[in-house]
């Protein structure tokens, strides 16, 4: 059976539980073990799909079309895993399942209670079958949160169900540094571990977020008060790039602690892929500047996968990538004077659309490398229709009903897949040979993930092609445009999908790799 590692957090939120979980998984993979990952969020939303990116950050999408927490992006990028709807579970989804089961009479008239009904449902998701050696489960929120108590109770029960030696508890805490007194305070960590113990869980390892390495005496003190060996107290030091975290854990023998707990042999890991990134980060190489024209810059994590994909492409092209945030709501051409490429990402709603259209216009007219994602493709189409084809009222019906719709909901398609709701998850795309898209991917058959509702009107294809914008990728049935590009431009390509969701730090993504290569060439 698989062995389970549970990651919890205390003191404050946003300590980096997702990265810690992915980092521990990477150490296991480096020794040849297979790893799966899951995220449990106590909040009452059914999933993050309706949450604003300004509040919650990016909504990540899996191959099977589930809208998930952005931490699943960390897992897929670090571990190369393909996760599903069963790997991102919220409290709202748990209660929804339980209450629907009650309505169907599945509890045979019994009183429905937090224990065992809700806790059993959580354990069902934890133990959903996977063909891997390890399952790393992150429990969202902070120990002490009211909504999280049932999740802690569930993992306590689960450890008893499968055997304590098949389960390891790793707890993230904070040791704040008081600059005036020059002291690193361990009391918050002690109190957090005590709160965890009140829920019946003894941490097997602590990762203590600190601005510097813990001293031997500090580790001894924390270990003594938290009831575990000092060697199991790890310094979660701040790093300037998340891909350095596995190396930081490796240097502190985190794998050995995990191996000792599960009775595994100590082994040296292959950390080559992380060492390559570390070397890249300190390399004296050129920098390209990419102007990202968006509207969700208030929260750093709103474009998390996008930023990561640009970084990955920089690694592949051996250039540093500087992201220049350009607010679409007050876009002006002069803000693009120092960029080597323009990227317009996805988004919902009319706010900022005019600025995104203007960005596409600027890139087209000034021969600046352009990459459009989702809405970034749609605004490129609108710009071309207005300013090249002369359709002055061209628009999307998402933004204006009284217009010439070049973008709209495809009413005659199967409503389950194309109308009235979002098109979510992986869909196939057929690429036209002898196009830029074909050069980028090197194949005529690809699959990319979607999250959108509106589509380009393919009946306009010939009119666009005659003027210089071609549809270079489409759905297998030929009805939905998936990629467009300009013929007489150094690099102008856009996709209706979200390629950032399949970018890897070890290989990049073909579309991003080609975009950064074009930006490097233009520089």
Task: Give structural notes.
With 523 residues, the protein is an alpha/beta fold. The chain folds into two domains: 3-277, Rossmann fold; 283-522, Class I glutamine amidotransferase (GATase) domain (Rossmann fold). The protein is built from 18 helices and 23 strands. It has a nine-stranded mixed β-sheet, sandwiched between helices. Helix 1 packs parallel to helix 3 and helix 1 crosses helix 9 (245-251).
List keywords for this structure.
2 domains, 7-stranded parallel β-sheet, 523 residues, alpha/beta, 9-stranded mixed β-sheet, Rossmann fold, single chain, globular
Largest sheet: number of strands, sense, barrel closure: 9 strands, mixed
Number of helices: 18
Class by SSE composition: alpha/beta
Query: If classified by CATH, what would the architecture of the largest domain be?
Result: 3-Layer(aba) Sandwich
> What amount of the residues lies in strands?
15-25%
CATH homologous superfamily label of the largest domain? P-loop containing nucleotide triphosphate hydrolases
| CATH class category of the largest domain | Alpha Beta
Total number of distinct structural domains: 2
Average pLDDT rating: 94
Rg over CA atoms, rounded to whole Å, is 25 Å
Give the spatial strand order of the biggest sheet: 13-12-14-15-23-22-21-18-19
| Overall outline | globular
Q: Helical amount among residues, as a percent range?
A: 25-40%
What is the total tally of β strands? 23
User: Between the first and last Cα atoms, what is the distance in angstroms?
Assistant: 53 Å
């Amino acid at each position: 059976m698989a062995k389970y590692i549970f990651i919890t957090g205390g003191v404050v939120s946003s300590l980096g539980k997702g990265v810690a979980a992915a980092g521990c998984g990477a150490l296991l993979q480096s020794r040849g073990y297979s790893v799966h990952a899951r995220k449990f969020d106590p909040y009452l939303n059914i999933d993050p799909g309706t949450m604003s990116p300004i509040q919650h950050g990016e909504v990540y999408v899996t191959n099977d079309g589930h809208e998930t927490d952005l931490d699943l992006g960390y897992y897929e990028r670090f571990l190369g895993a393909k996760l599903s709807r069963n790997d991102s579970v919220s409290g709202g989804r748990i209660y929804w399942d339980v209450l629907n089961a009650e309505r169907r009479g599945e509890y045979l008239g019994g009183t429905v209670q937090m224990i065992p009904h809700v806790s059993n449902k959580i354990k069902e998701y934890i133990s959903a079958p996977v063909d891997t050696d390890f399952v790393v489960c992150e429990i969202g929120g902070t120990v002490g949160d009211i909504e999280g108590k049932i999740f802690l109770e569930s993992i306590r029960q689960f450890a008893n169900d499968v055997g304590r030696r098949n389960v390891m508890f790793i707890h993230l805490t904070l040791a704040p540094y008081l600059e005036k007194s020059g002291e690193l305070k361990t009391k918050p960590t002690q109190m957090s571990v005590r709160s965890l113990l009140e829920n019946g869980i003894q941490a097997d390892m602590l990762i203590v977020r600190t601005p510097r390495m813990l001293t031997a005496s500090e580790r001894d003190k924390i270990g003594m008060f938290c009831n575990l060996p000092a060697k199991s107290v790890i310094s979660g030091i701040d790093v300037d790039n998340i891909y350095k975290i596995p190396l930081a854990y490796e240097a502190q023998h985190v794998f050995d602690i995990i191996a000792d707990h599960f009775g595994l042999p100590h082994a040296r890991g292959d950390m080559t892929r992380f060492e390559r990134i570390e070397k890249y980060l300190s390399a004296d190489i050129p920098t390209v500047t990419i102007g990202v024209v968006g509207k969700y810059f208030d929260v750093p994590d709103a474009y998390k996968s996008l930023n990561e994909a640009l970084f990955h492409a920089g690694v592949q092209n051996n250039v540093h990538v500087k992201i220049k945030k350009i607010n679409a709501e007050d876009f002006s051409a002069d803000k693009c004077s120092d960029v080597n490429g323009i990227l317009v990402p996805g988004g919902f709603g009319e706010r900022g659309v005019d600025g995104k259209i203007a960005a596409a216009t600027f890139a087209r007219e000034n021969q600046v490398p352009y990459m459009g994602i989702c809405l970034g493709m749609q605004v490129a189409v609108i710009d071309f229709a207005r300013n090249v084809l002369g359709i002055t009222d061209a628009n999307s019906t998402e933004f204006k009903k009284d217009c010439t719709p070049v973008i709209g909901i495809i009413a005659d398609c199967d409503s389950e897949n194309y109308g009235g709701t979002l098109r979510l998850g992986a869909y196939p795309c057929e690429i036209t040979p002898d196009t830029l898209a074909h050069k980028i991917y090197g194949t005529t058959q690809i699959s990319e993930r979607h999250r959108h509702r509106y589509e380009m009107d393919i009946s306009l294809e010939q009119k666009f092609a005659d003027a210089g914008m071609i549809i270079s990728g489409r759905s297998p049935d030929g009805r939905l445009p998936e990629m467009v590009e300009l013929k007489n431009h150094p690099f102008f390509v856009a996709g209706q999908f979200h390629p950032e969701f399949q970018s890897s730090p070890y290989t990049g993504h073909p579309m991003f790799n080609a975009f950064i290569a074009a930006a490097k060439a233009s520089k």
